[in-house]
Every structure is written in structure tokens, then in C-alpha cells.
Amino acid sequence: MHHQKLTGQQVIPAGRIVLRPLRPEDQGALTLHAGDERVARMTSTIPHPLPPGTAAAFIERALGEHRREHVWAIAGGPDAPPGLLGVISLKPLDAGQSEIGYWVVPAFWNTHIASTAVAALTDANPLGDRTIFASVFQDNPVSARVLSRNGFQYLGEAETYSVARAATVPTWTYLKTLG
Length: 179
Prior knowledge:
- It is built from 5 helices and 9 strands, in the order βββαααβββαβαββ.
- The longest helix is centred in the middle third of the chain and has 12 residues, at 113-124.
- A 9-stranded mixed β-sheet has the order 1-2-3-4-5-6-7-9-8, sandwiched between helices.
- The chain has one domain (4-129): Aminopeptidase.
- It is α+β, with helices and mostly antiparallel strands.
- Helix 1 (27-34) packs across helix 3.
- A hairpin with a 2-residue loop joins strand 2 (9-14) and strand 3.
- The two termini are 16 Å apart.
């Protein structure tokens, strides 16, 4: 698989989609889709309603030289609609360990976009991780299936705070060991 560098971050082709760094021109689509309550409620960090300027600040942090999280746009490739289809990220936790997070635009739910993006990112392993963790809210079994299909092993139950829900939510935690 060929990987290009753009703003110091890999562009990862994945068949019908491509994982690429966010761009300032993604701000409108990011505001629209991250501002959708259905998306925000399934994440721990996206507030709802989305305050003005949140998408622009997120893009600026994602493109920053000292970013704490590596973020890719899930974008249409040669066999998919153009534009922003979702977001996927790796947040380094410790040496050789990261946490993966992702969301997909509701119009593309149940189209295997998330599974394709997770597979592409874990196969590329751009941070050179030994292990990748993930957690999903227990009321989102589709996201749990995305992880299971991609070789993540179930570890157990936990809880995390959801900004959009303004509540602590039960989660399932997963781990994938990379070769």
C-alpha cells in the first residue's frame, strides 16, 4: 500500500475511501455532521449543540505540529461519493499504545465505511503502535461489531463521560494487538 505525506501525516488509500488529514475547507461539513445529535451522542467529546467555532478549532488542533491526537478525514475515494464521510483518529496513550475513535456521517451508516476506515488505519499503523484500544457506548452495538470484525478483542465493561449526553455512559472496551 502506498502512503503519501501531507502536512506530516499519512494519506491512506483504502479502496472506495481515503483517509487524509483534515483540511480547512472541511469546516462546513464537519460543523454540519459533528453537529448532528445522532453523531455527537455516540462520542465522548463532541458537544451538542455544537458551539460556533468548534469545527474550526478542531481542524486547527488536528493540523498543529504538536497535536495530541492524529486525526484523518474519512473521505470518498474513487468508488465513493466525494466529500467528508466521517472522522477517524488515533490518540497516543503510552509508548506503543493508542486509542482509536471514529464516527461516520449518518447518511453512510451501515455501508461498511467505518469498518473499511478502521481496517485501513490499523493495517497502516502510522504511529507504529503495538496495541490499539477502543471503547464504544453499550447502546451502539454496530460500532462494537466494527471493532470485532477488525480483530479487536473484547476486554470488559467500563464507563466514560459523554459531553453531548452530559452523563456517564457504560462502555465496552476492546484491544487489538498489532504485528
